[in-house]
Amino acid sequence: MRYAQLLAFALAAIQWVKADDDTPAHGEEESEEMGPVAFMWPEDREWSASDDNTAPCGSSEEPGERTQFPLTRGALALVIQDDSWNVDVSIAYQNDPSENSDFETLITTRIAELDPGHACYSVPDPPRDVIDGTNATIQLRYTSDFDTDTNETFYACADITYVSSARFDTEIPCFNVTSDNFTASDDDEDEEDAAGSLRSNTGTVGLVAGFVALGSWLLL
Ligand SMILES: *[C@@H]1O[C@H](CO)[C@@H](O)[C@H](O)[C@H]1NC(C)=O
Ligand SMILES: *[C@@H]1O[C@H](CO)[C@@H](O)[C@H](O)[C@H]1NC(C)=O
Ligand SMILES: *[C@@H]1O[C@H](CO)[C@@H](O)[C@H](O)[C@H]1NC(C)=O
Ligand SMILES: *[C@@H]1O[C@H](CO)[C@@H](O)[C@H](O)[C@H]1NC(C)=O
């Protein structure tokens, strides 16, 4: 599991809380080890900046380690470090899908927007012919203006093997926390004018709420 990403997000949040007036606005301190959106669970393929706009998986790697994924009541836990839009979640019931046309829609309602933080979405159960041991790849395809002034299409994939719910014993790290939970206000004027103590007090409250959310599954 991507504890490193969680940690990166938590550290970024602490940076926001501690931010001095000359510190860049949130969203500008980005991890250089992931794209704007990554899978936290199931585990995603190795990320690289040079490949993340390449269909279908944003990676030059082949399917690697597969995460065991339940045949019923599956979910995706995402970590988001920059605003992203029009997120399509698709799936290929294949060992090594190589193009977008290998994928079919998994979450029928496109996710209009993802804000920095953590988000978790339940996914529909697969068709009946998908059984214990079936391999699949879950794809995220979305728009972001990460690091640039133009919107580009980004890709990320997670390789899975379905297992019967009886054999599935992982606690999916499923929770929503956004960076708004960590900062006093998104309003730039407020941020500039706010007394540091006000901002760090409310920021700390948000931070504690975030860590309670993280802790509730880390301890499970
Ligand atoms: C699933 O993928 C793994 C490698 O990722 C492979 O060893 C295994 O044979 C595949 N299973 C099936 C049913 O094709
Ligand atoms: C990218 O697209 C989103 C959603 O349509 C929009 O809100 C955002 O302003 C766009 N960014 C740029 C740099 O055009
Ligand atoms: C997270 O938020 C999304 C969008 O509002 C929602 O669909 C999803 O069910 C939420 N997940 C949890 C675990 O609350
Ligand atoms: C984060 O903020 C949202 C909306 O502002 C709120 O619904 C949610 O409960 C907060 N989450 C935590 C963990 O504080």
Describe it for me?
This is Copper acquisition factor BIM1-like domain-containing protein. Keywords: Cell membrane, Glycoprotein, GPI-anchor, Lipoprotein, Membrane, Signal. The chain has 220 residues and is an alpha+beta fold. It has one domain: Immunoglobulin-like, CATH 2.60.40. Helices cover 20% and strands 27% of the residues. The protein contains 3 helices and 10 strands; from the N terminus they run αββββββββββαα. The chain has helices at 3-18, 188-193, 196-218, and strands spanning 37-41, 67-70, 75-80, 84-92, 104-105, 111-114, 117-122, 135-144, 152-163, 177-178. The strands form 2 sheets. Strands 2, 4, 5, 6, 8 and 9 form a 6-stranded mixed β-sheet that branches. The longest helix is centred in the last third of the chain and has 23 residues, at 196-218. It is globular, with a radius of gyration of 18 Å. The model is unreliable at 11-28 and 188-209 (pLDDT under 50). Residues 63, 66, 95, 133, 135, 161 line the site of one 2-acetamido-2-deoxy-beta-D-glucopyranose. The site of one 2-acetamido-2-deoxy-beta-D-glucopyranose has 6 residues, from β7.
What is the strand and helix layout of this fold?
Layout: H1 3-18, E1 37-41, E2 67-70, E3 75-80, E4 84-92, E5 104-105, E6 111-114, E7 117-122, E8 135-144, E9 152-163, E10 177-178, H2 188-193, H3 196-218
Parallel strand pairs: 2-9
Antiparallel strand pairs: 1-3, 3-7, 4-5, 4-6, 4-8, 7-10, 8-9
Helix pairs in contact: 1-3
Bound molecules: 2-acetamido-2-deoxy-beta-D-glucopyranose (4 copies).
One 2-acetamido-2-deoxy-beta-D-glucopyranose binds at residues 177-178, 180-181, 209-210, 213.
